[in-house]
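In response to the reviewer comment on reproducibility (Comment 2.3), we provide here a single inverse folding case reported in full, input and output, so that an independent group could reproduce the run without further information from us. The structure tokens appear first.
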């Protein structure tokens, strides 16, 4: 059985609240702390836009930036120009395997490649004893997420999933409020996002374009099937819309917007997943869709939970009763959001779960939780964070532990990507999460794992 995800509830249940919180602070809940380090030497893999803030963060913390790695030399050059003299001695690599082999003094790696590369590079880095920070979703497939969860249990390296809302004081405050039963039993969650800019609902274009100088296109495709290069279609950024490389909006945001629910509502795996939508591509994410994850009651929760996610606009929007108070409060429906509906009240946590507005039954508008009488007596007893990357660096240096390790990030990813399985099959499914199986449909196994090209592993 997998290790239980770290949540407020499991912390309190371990052996008393005081003991559990001391374990969280000390970093000893899952075994031995890593060796203490004075200064962390960090390598960065996947030098697109997402990683630039992480480079700046590591530099601002006074750690050592050792190497940049990317199959597109242009992205390395752009990164060096962006950070200037602070990285003028950085080593440059095209091949992550060469980096891991040669840079023996590197303590840790930050990974922000396209999703299909996450698991292979995480495995290689962890096997080499490197601490790892990997962007969300943790992996490209459910099977890969389970493998990384199992690997992190057996490894002594420090891991952190890049769902930065985990460090938010509002997320941690929301955990405290839910644990204190401020909202009563929470039975529904609604997450929404407008139309995205990635390819959706279509097929790959015909023909090919010349591969830009400095880009190793075959290596970029890596474990995925090789496609003809097309300018502006896959690289950079738009790869997320294509199922060979990413998982659309759900892959992009499940580790953000499902985060609080997993931590606070004793979620295990959805028992059933249904959806409506249009433009349900076989190669791309849907043009628009509403996906419903049904979590049956379990030994830790006496009621069912429905987690709904909407993207693309059109008919894929939350029901009026779920968002009426948000419209009353903010004047119009926020562009993105996440709302928890309980028997006694509602919580608006935002897409990153980094907000904390509450509304009790009978009230028409949300207010900040700190200004509401219903929350003032609830103690603040979950440790706050200096920042998501700070937390990882501290843990790598033997000070405390991370809040979103690969056990948690892998579980989030498994939940989110089970919805992708339903979208790819284009039918409602009954899901056995523990076994990673769609009940009655063995053909679904092709969507739960995948056959990798081996050349670049």
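Designed residues, in position order:
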């Amino acid at each position: 059985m997998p290790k239980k995800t770290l949540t407020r509830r499991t912390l309190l249940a371990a052996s008393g609240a005081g003991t559990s919180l001391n374990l969280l602070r000390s970093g000893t809940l899952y075994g031995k702390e890593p060796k203490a380090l004075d200064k962390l030497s960090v390598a960065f893999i996947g030098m697109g836009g997402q990683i630039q803030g992480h480079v700046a963060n590591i530099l601002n913390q006074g750690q050592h930036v050792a190497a940049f790695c990317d199959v597109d030399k242009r992205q390395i050059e752009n990164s060096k120009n962006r950070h200037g003299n602070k990285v003028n001695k950085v080593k440059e690599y095209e091949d992550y395997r060469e980096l891991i082999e040669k840079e023996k003094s590197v303590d840790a790696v930050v990974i922000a490649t396209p999703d299909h590369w996450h698991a292979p590079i995480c495995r290689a880095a962890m096997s080499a004893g490197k601490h790892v920070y990997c962007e969300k979703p943790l992996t490209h497939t459910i099977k890969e997420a389970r493998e990384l969860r199992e690997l992190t249990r057996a490894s002594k390296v420090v891991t952190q999933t890049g769902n930065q809302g985990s460090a938010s004081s509002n997320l941690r405050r929301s955990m405290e409020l839910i644990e204190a039963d401020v909202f009563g039993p929470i039975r529904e969650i609604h997450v929404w996002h407008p139309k995205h800019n990635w390819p959706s609902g279509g097929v790959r274009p015909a023909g090919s374009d010349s591969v830009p100088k400095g880009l190793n296109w075959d290596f970029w495709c890596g474990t995925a099937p090789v496609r003809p290069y097309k300018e502006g279609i896959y690289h950079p950024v738009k790869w997320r819309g294509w199922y060979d490389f990413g998982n659309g909006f759900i892959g992009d945001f499940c580790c953000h917007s499902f985060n609080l629910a997993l931590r606070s509502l004793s979620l295990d795996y959805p028992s059933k997943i249904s959806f409506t939508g249009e433009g349900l591509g076989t190669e791309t994410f849907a043009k628009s869709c509403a996906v419903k994850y049904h979590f049956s009651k379990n030994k830790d929760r006496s009621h069912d939970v429905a987690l709904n996610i909407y993207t693309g606009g059109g008919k894929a929007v939350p029901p009026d009763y779920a968002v009426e108070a948000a419209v009353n409060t903010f004047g119009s429906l926020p562009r993105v959001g996440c709302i928890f509906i309980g028997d006694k009240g509602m919580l608006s946590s935002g897409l990153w779960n980094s907000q904390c507005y509450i509304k009790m039954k009978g009230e028409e508008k949300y207010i900040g939780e700190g200004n509401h009488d219903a929350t003032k007596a609830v103690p603040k007893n979950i440790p706050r964070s200096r920042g998501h990357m700070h937390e990882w660096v501290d843990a790598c240096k033997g000070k405390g532990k991370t809040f979103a390790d690969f056990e948690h990030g892998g579980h989030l990813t498994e939940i989110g990507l089970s919805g992708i399985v339903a979208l790819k099959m284009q039918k409602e499914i009954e899901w056995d999460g523990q076994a990673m199986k769609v009940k009655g449909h063995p053909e679904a196994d092709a969507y739960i794992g995948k056959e990798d090209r081996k050349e670049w592993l």
